[in-house]
Design a protein that fits this description.
The complex is a heterodimer of chains A (690) and B (237). Chain A has 690 residues and is mostly beta strands. Chain A has 6 helices and 42 strands. The radius of gyration of chain B is 33 Å and the shape is extended. The chains are: A mainly beta (690), B alpha+beta (237). At the A-B interface, strand 9, helix 4, helix 6, strand 18 and strand 22 of A face helix 1, strand 2, strand 5 and strand 7 of B.
Chain lengths: 690, 237
């Protein structure tokens, strides 16, 4: 079998990523599966399947170089007690490495041609590597690392390799104690120090002021300076503990037990943060594209973060988010992530957990639609994919717009799709989910009977306005005709029937206008989706209207001319998000304006069923400084006794995000910041990464 | 520019005046007009029909999942690429460039220093590139968990000679006088919490924290990959 390379993780161009080259030695043709499995289980599943390396998977290209050895296994050498060679048994392996099992000889060594063989293999297969992992087909324990390489055996566990990567990729020092006193100066590594001054301690920002410094003093102690707090976490609580760098005294480490001490615990906050800072710019991560969804069905909104060709999901426990899933390149199934993927979340299989529909009409030779669902271990995998079309729709196109709604009322969210741009006439389609796939149900070519013609700038809004548990449609068009129109289309489960069309006005509104903005929410809690309409552009003042659904039409409940009491004035660039902020089953509005006033305002407009009472917070929400770059995702990260999901309700909280920052804002009883994260989502026991 | 005067909305019980525009009105009732045409080629969707068994089969999935999505035409990688140089540091700190090759695509410039070593490529006071090197010049035997006490730690081996890799964008290199280009290798003597790359050369910014351990002064044209050498030959002409 000729030598080859398999890129087992494709995170991006080599110049914008870090590149790990894996070379195998002593793997004959018949051993290739063993080699592949070991790399899969120990490197991808082990090192890159846990803590830091799992989170930042998108920083790393991984190349598995498949070198065929003529013999199975590697050469062996034994040493006498005095260090002289007792015996050597040479075999013909690709790299010619020699395993000795001798600690004082780095467990293994290079043969005469090993360095050249390694260089040749790298130059041919992974010319721009950053780090090299060499795996010996040898079941004995042992390893030798350093100088940009790690040499391991198939007998080594992944945690040992992760520790070694702490040195090789993190520049971290050992935190374990072995013998003697340290007598050098301040070490260059970030995770050991001789400094016992809290004010200048290099990891002092992670040390709680109530924690004594030093925290452990003496011969490699644990916490011995006072009583150890009951909730102290030996891996995540940071202090100053004597012993490290293999010495028992004279040097200090940050935690009692880190991966750099005992291999198996996760990296401590100091080591984790050092890794994150070192490789953050290679991850491509941002918080620009975030989607709220309840992935585990616990009633709390989690978040999916999409960056380039990677996704991460973070799970809410009500007060914070924790990493649940990280994927780069693709998920099993397979779906390959790209920058222009569009995500839509909803419970498409009725299991109480949200799934993800992903559509991409830009990055591939044809548009693709995929359905990602729980993979059984907290992650996502592809369960259905449609390449270019779903039979009956007549072809996905670049400007297909998807809307989530359970139009047949079977408890599984379905999809509406609209295209007003790519064809000679606009189309609306209904795609039904059976939980594991979508099927085409109905297509409307150019018109839905009664609407008088679908048009390019029709805007679609989903809501069960009839209250029969089937998602219906509102359609608004303010651009294509001589007057603006609103249409209401009731789902029969397999078709849409127009129940009302408003030509130029909804009674009481005083005239539909071009820039009317519609928001769907059941503001009176009667189980029927109602409409808010806002217009900040077309009139001499801004207007906000509330239109209750009668089940087949709309009836104005209230119109606010220029202000909603307590909001301090409706303004041109007001934006709204329907959400049941106070959990009373009535959809309220979150108001947001960053353009029209001297400062930014975030407001709560609580619905009484027929009117709104507003309040607002200006400029800052806790430590969050709202601004033009911010994007909001109404959600319910706190969980609790909120009514079951209905569009526009049950979302008292907000995720707020921009390029570098992510915030969790509680909406009830008032806006307040629950958590703020910079560059990455991680919950430090004390301190922060900025 | 005069401010546009907008009308107030009529009272909630008043009939609105329709907006004056040239477009057509929608029809009343059920007899809708033909759908509005969209500019451009007349492209209609295929007639909607129940999916055939054949078309459904086309969507079927094998046990291992779907095949890869098909990439469209991609633009070639932005940027002219970069040169990767392998620099050898000898027993007495002497340096030589022992290998080089060209890599297509952009090269990310790190914004900060991390780890125990760093290199910087400069032409005078101008930085061409820098990067961190976490681990250099030593080998460590893994701890022997079942061994005697002295083996329950790494056994360290200082390397008499070692190599490190340097990357530098072709554009930056092509604009420089190769004889004035220097590659400096630094040891991080004292890590600070944050060491942003900044704009000044590293030895100016971090003279306390960094110690130079090796230097290459001037890059011979012949040390560069053949494809990059051509750039300099062209410039001579």
């Amino acid at each position: 079998m000729p030598d080859s390379v398999t890129q087992i993780r494709n995170a991006g161009p080599v110049g914008s990523k870090r590149n790990l080259a894996i070379l195998g030695d002593g793997f004959a043709d018949a051993d290739q599966a063993t080699y592949n499995d070991w790399v899969q289980n120990s490197v991808l599943g082990g090192v890159f399947g846990n803590d830091y390396f799992y989170e930042d998977a998108s920083a790393w290209n991984i190349f598995r170089v498949n070198l065929a050895s003529n013999n199975s296994g590697v050469s062996q050498r034994t040493y006498n007690a005095d260090g002289t060679i007792a015996s050597t048994t040479l075999v013909d392996s690709a790299l010619g490495m020699i395993f000795s099992g001798s600690w004082s000889h780095c467990w293994m060594e290079y043969g005469t041609g090993t360095e050249t063989a390694i260089q040749n293999a790298l130059k041919k297969w992974v010319p721009d590597y950053n780090f090299v992992l060499i795996i010996l087909n040898e079941s004995g324990y042992g390893g030798c690392g350093g100088n940009g390489r790690a040499h391991v055996t198939t007998g080594d566990g992944w945690a040992v390799i992760a520790h070694e990567f702490g040195h090789g990729l993190g520049g971290l020092a050992d935190e374990y104690c072995n013998s003697g006193a340290y007598s050098g100066g301040e070490p260059g590594a970030v995770d050991i120090t001789i400094n016992t001054d809290r004010s200048t301690l290099k990891w002092g920002n992670f040390v709680n002021p109530t924690t004594p410094v030093p925290t452990g003093s003496g011969n490699c102690p644990d916490y011995n300076q006072g009583a150890k707090p009951a909730d102290w976490d030996d891996n995540q609580d940071v202090g100053l503990f004597e012993g490290g760098n293999t010495n028992n005294t004279g040097v200090y480490r940050p935690v009692i037990n880190c991966r750099m001490r005992n291999n198996t615990p996760p990296y401590c906050p100091v080591c984790y943060t050092s890794f994150k800072r070192q490789y953050d710019s290679y991850t491509g991560h941002t918080f620009l594209k975030c989607y709220a969804a309840d992935f585990n069905g616990d009633g709390r909104s989690d978040v999916l973060v999409h960056s380039g060709n990677s996704i991460q999901t973070f799970r809410s426990n009500g007060a914070q988010l924790d990493i649940a899933f990280s994927a780069v390149g693709r998920v099993p199934g397979s779906w390959q992530f790209q920058p222009n993927d569009q995500f839509f979340t909803g419970d498409f299989n009725g299991d109480g957990k949200d799934e993800v529909v992903v559509f991409n009409s830009v990055d591939w030779v044809m548009p693709y639609l995929g359905l990602l669902a729980d993979d059984g271990s907290g992650g996502l995998s592809l369960v259905a994919r449609y390449d270019g079309d779903i039979p009956g729709w007549g072809g996905f196109a670049k400007n297909d717009l998807f809307y989530v709604g359970d139009f047949d009322g079977n408890g599984k969210q379905d999809l509406f799709v609209f295209n007003g741009a790519d064809w000679s006439m606009p189309y609306v389609g209904m795609l039904r989910s059976n939980g594991s796939s979508f099927s085409f149900i109905r297509r409307f070519d150019g018109d839905i009977p009664g609407w008088g013609g679908l048009a390019r700038n029709d805007k679609i809004f989903v809501g069960d306005y009839s209250g029969n548990a089937k998602a219906d449609l509102f359609i608004f068009n303010g651009d294509d005709w001589s007057m603006a129109y609103v249409g209401m289309f009731q789902s029969t489960g397999a078709d849409l029937q127009m129940t009302a069309r408003y030509d130029g006005d909804i009674p009481g509104w005083g005239g539909l206008a071009r820039h009317d903005q519609l928001y769907v929410g059941d503001f009176n809690g009667d189980g029927k989706a109602d409409l808010f309409i806002f217009n900040g552009d077309d009139w001499s003042m801004s207007y906000l209207g509330m239109f209750g659904s009668t089940g087949s039409g709309l009836q104005m409940a209230h119109r606010y001319d220029g202000d909603v009491p307590g909001w301090g004035g409706l303004a041109r660039h007001d934006q709204f998000f329907p959400a049941d902020i106070n959990g009373d089953g009535k959809a309220d509005l979150i108001g947001w304006n960053f353009e029209d006033w001297a400062t930014e305002y975030l407001g709560r407009m609580i619905s009484s069923g027929s009117s709104l009472a507003a309040s607002f917070i200006g400029d800052w929400v806790g430590e969050w400084n709202p601004g033009a770059a911010d994007r909001f995702e109404p959600c319910n990260f706190q969980g609790g006794t909120i009514r079951p999901f209905r569009r526009g309700s049950g979302k008292p909280d907000l995720f707020v995000h921009n390029q570098d920052w992510f915030g969790m804002i509680r909406g009830n009883p008032d806006f307040s910041l629950q958590k703020i994260y910079y560059r990455w989502i991680h919950n430090y026991r004390y301190g922060r990464n900025w | 520019m005069p401010e546009r005067i907008l009308p107030e909305k009529p009272a909630t019980d008043a009939r609105p005046a329709p907006v004056k525009r040239k477009d057509a009105s929608k029809s009343k009732g059920k007899n809708a007009p033909p759908a509005q045409r969209i500019r451009g080629k007349m492209v209609l969707k295929a007639k909607a029909a129940k999916p055939s068994a054949k078309s459904l089969a086309a969507q079927a999935r094998g046990p291992e999942g779907y095949e890869d999505q098909t990439a469209g035409r991609r633009a070639s990688p932005a940027g002219k690429g970069y040169v990767r140089l392998r620099v050898r540091v000898g027993e007495n700190g002497e340096t030589s460039i022992v290998d080089s090759h060209f890599v297509a695509g952009d090269l990310v410039q790190p914004s900060a220093l991390h780890g125990q070593f760093a290199y910087e490529v400069t032409e005078g006071q101008t930085r061409l590139h820098l990067d961190s090197i976490p681990d250099l010049g030593v080998f460590r035997s893994f701890v022997n968990p079942d061994g005697p006490l002295e083996e329950r730690k790494h056994h360290m081996y200082e390397l008499k000679t070692y190599d490190f890799d340097v990357r530098v964008p072709v554009d930056e290199l092509a604009a420089a006088a190769l004889s004035k280009v220097a590659i400096k290798l630094y040891r991080v003597k004292e890590a600070k919490t944050a060491m942003p790359a900044g704009n000044q050369p590293l030895d100016v910014q971090y003279h306390r924290e960094l110690r130079e351990v090796a230097r290459v002064e001037g890059i011979p044209v012949k040390a560069l990959p053949r494809a990059v050498q051509k750039l300099f030959e062209k410039r001579k002409r």
